[in-house]
Amino acid sequence: MKLNKPLILTGFFLSFLCLILPQSSVSQSTGVNLLIKINGDVKIKREKWKGFQKATVGALLSPNDLLQVGNNASATLLCSNTQKWQATSSKQFRVSEGCPRGLVSRSRNTTRSATRGDNEKIPYIISPRNTTILTNRPLLQWNKVPGATRYTVKLEGSGLDWQTETTNTEILYPGEPILQPGGYYRLVVTTEDPKVSSKDEQGANLSFNILDKAKVESINAEVAKIKQQELTPEAEKLAIAYLYETSGLKADAITILSELVAQKTQTMAGYKLLGDLYLQVGLNKQAKEAYLQSLELAEKSGDLEGQAESQFGLGEANYGLTGKDKALECLKKAQQSYLALGDESKVQEVENRIKQINK
Asked: Where are the annotated TPR repeats, by residue (predicted)?
């Protein structure tokens, strides 16, 4: 093993300690560490697993998780204490041997949306929705309605009343009137033929707000620091997406992960996180598509945990789209994968969700 010099990423890692899911998912007091590079045969064993599994880039590791590094192999982690650790010994060891224990950790659960159904016949909002955003000139996007040739686009809330028309399904907000930090806004899109509205979507949180200037500057500074590190393109985008997500910038995180997906990344964690984010903002169809991609890559690589998490996400997305039958099918597959891993706590967690859906 060897420890590299600490990275100058203190601000980022204060946020990075709270990766992937909203604050309500914070669990016990241990740190999380991101596996950013793998060379050769590297395996991991989580505290509650019965054996080792093949490691994948993008995995979040807790201090009590075990790493097994094969001959001439190496694994590189970004630790929760701002240090970069490259493990090169041909041995088995705890992550805490190279990444000291941090302050908090994240549950790897998937946040559920209250949105039900997915009506392609309405101009439902794609972005921004249920998010904080960096810019006060957001790209406004919505679903294309069959037969519609013109859309009335309106931003409302916090005293704003801005409206325009377009034939497209996206438009860049011009910046005037200025969207103010602290205010909450909502995008409303309507068509006359057929006469439908984004307001017809049921159970969705469609509001968004602007990050204040000081926080924007802080986030941008952290992004600049990340870009100065010697990370692969996938690891860099994942790190930035995690930073955005933990800052409530779900739309911005989706944008950067969509760029990664457009480049045909083979990093399963990118698709999985994208699915989680879509689920958080209530876009079940898009979440399902992302989870199907992450599941395919997890199956291809033999990543049993990735399969379990993808199936769990698919269960939630399907529950929002079509109801319980398909959801239960996916959740039971996730449960079987967790059972194969020997993670009884996750098996029970999925069982509780199955019972909840069956009520």
From this structure: 268-301
**Are the CB atoms for 215 and 134 separated by under 8 Å?**
no
Secondary structure tally for the chain: helices H, strands E: 9, 18
DSSP for 136-177 reads SSPEEEEPPPTT---EEEEEEETTEEEEEEESSSEEE--S-S
Encode pLDDT of 25-68 as tens digits: 333 334 568 899 999 999 999 999 999 999 999 998 999 999 99
Inform me whether the pLDDT recorded for 108 exceeds 50.
no
For residue 115, being part of any structural domain is answered with no
Q: Do 353 and 227 fall within a single domain?
A: yes
Q: Which two tokens stand for residue 326?
A: 């398909």
205 in any annotated domain: yes
* 143/261 same-domain check: no
Q: Whole-prediction pTM value?
A: 0.87
Q: What residues make up the domain containing 8?
A: 2-97
Residue 112 lies in a domain: no
| Nearest alpha carbon to residue 170 among 203, 130, 129, 127 | 127
